[in-house]
Amino acid sequence: MTVSSLEAPAQAEARPDRPGATELRLAAFAAHRRARFPLGPLTLFTGPSGSGKTGALRAYEALARLGGGAALGEVFPDPVACVPERARPDAQRRRGFRIGCTVDGPEGPVRLEVAVQAEPELRIVGERLTAGGVTLLETALRDPGRRVVQAAWHTAGPSAVTRGPLPDDRLGTALLPLRVAGRTDGERRVLAAAEQMVVALRSVYACDPSPRRMRAAAPLGAGRLLRGCDNLAEVLWRTRSECGRRYAHLVTAVRAGCAGPVTDVLAEPLGDGTVRALLDRGDGVRTHLGLLGDGELRYLALALVLLTGPGVLEVDPAGEVPAALQTLTVLADGLDRGLDVRQAGELVRLAARMCERGHIRLVGAVGDAVPVCEEPGVTVVDLTP
Questions:
Q1: Phi, psi at residue 182, to the nearest 5°?
Q2: How far apart are CA 259 and CA 95, in angstroms?
Q3: What is the pLDDT of residues 367-380, one digit of tens each?
Q4: In sequence order, which residues have a C-beta less than 8 Å from that of residue 90 and are 6 or more positions away?
Q5: How would you classify the pairing of strands 328-332 and 204-206?
Q6: Residues paired with residue 225 on neighbouring β-strands, in sequence order
Q7: Is 118:97 a contact under the CB 8 Å cutoff?
């Protein structure tokens, strides 16, 4: 694995106001062992098929869903597939995997490590949250017969730690606000670190546009863009009137990535409660999106994602934290799937401009990083053996 970044050498800076993941660790997950991947505002994983690009993004999404409070079984419906192929069971027939990440923010770098048992039963068997060399939360499975783990969190009061049980099917870090009172400086430090980790993990939108679904008219509804962008036409209908400046940027991006002239991107309601999207070609010519190629549709959908925000995308950010202190992270496996070199380059340049502002981050996987390696601000993680 090689990592490159074209960003200028970092100068000594104050801690970032917005929490963001800076490292993904896969100690033992699918094809990865003892892997550490740096994450910047715009990170692209590249490498041949089977090198583990999809696995890395799957692990990131799993951490995000656990940080949002999802149950372990929902996050890992097929946990055995996450166990490294050559992993051998122990004397109790147990096998599992380990993932983790680092989030930097107002509290400084905060590290999270999670150990998951996949066989014979799915459960979290260990978790550690640390910051500044101090273990703030640590859990361990003490009694396999009970569906709980023993947890100890930093107190720094009359007792150094407080102990108590936590469920073995949820991330303990996400549950800390329900268990820690915050009476001591130590407990307040625990809560601040846990909040930083959860805010960064929850603000994740996994996106994989499906051209086949985008071709159909979409029913009018809440106007939140689905993971597969099935309701692209509905979201275009909603967003056109909400922010004219941003919509103008979308039209410019579509003009750069789609074949033929483009003067506008439109959405029109039909008489059956649905809405369809069209490209205005000028001179009264309009092209229904259903006639576009797969690459053009994926390009348009991903450009829309980069130019919108949590209020438009189907994501559940931390509602108790002001939006100005959150950063949305877009996960896009197969970012360049179906795109030609020109479209891939235009999309990455758009992503670089948006990520530079600090409101959005992008972690994507591409089959060939050559068209994007020369873009400033891109962290390229090359998984080529």
A1: 80, 30
A2: 51
A3: 866 666 667 889 99
A4: none
A5: parallel
A6: 313
A7: yes
